[in-house]
Design brief:
With 133 residues, the chain is an all-alpha fold. The protein has helices at residues 2-24, 26-36, 60-67, 69-77, 81-90, 105-121.
């Protein structure tokens, strides 16, 4: 550990010395630029193509309410897979990301339908038919 700190200190001193000389001597600066210019630039990793969330995505809760569960599932099957994945991400329907590798629109649409149905029914167990109590 002590040797590493000594090496770091020595390298910092060398860099400072080179920097000072480059500031004083333009020819040295040009030669240093030519020497260091072929260093490869660090490549940034390519990001996967992503669907922008919220752009042209349907309101799935309104569609579920107006169409009913069966018709909603059929309507979802007609949607592009990228849109289905965007809906899942937008509404955080798959926290475990188990649907990330699914390529079948039937499976995705069924999953979305079940998640929406469960969310809309959440809390209904606390509702009672009695309003007098």
């Amino acid at each position: 550990m002590r040797k590493e700190k000594a090496l770091i200190t020595m390298l910092r001193g060398l860099v400072d010395l080179i920097s000072d000389e480059a500031a004083r001597n333009p020819e040295f600066s040009n030669r240093l630029d030519l020497l260091l210019s072929p260093l490869p630039k660090r490549k940034t990793p390519q990001r996967k193509r992503s669907v922008r969330l919220g752009v042209d995505l349907p309101d799935i809760y309104r569609e579920f309410g107006s169409r009913g569960q069966t018709e909603f599932t059929h309507w979802l099957r007609a949607q592009p897979i990228d849109s289905l994945r965007a809906v899942i991400r937008l509404h955080d329907l798959d926290a475990t990301r188990r649907t990330s590798k699914w390529k079948d629109s039937d499976k995705l649409s069924h999953f979305i339908t079940e998640q929406i149905r469960a969310r809309m029914a959440r809390g209904s167990g606390f509702l009672t038919g009695d309003s007098g109590t």
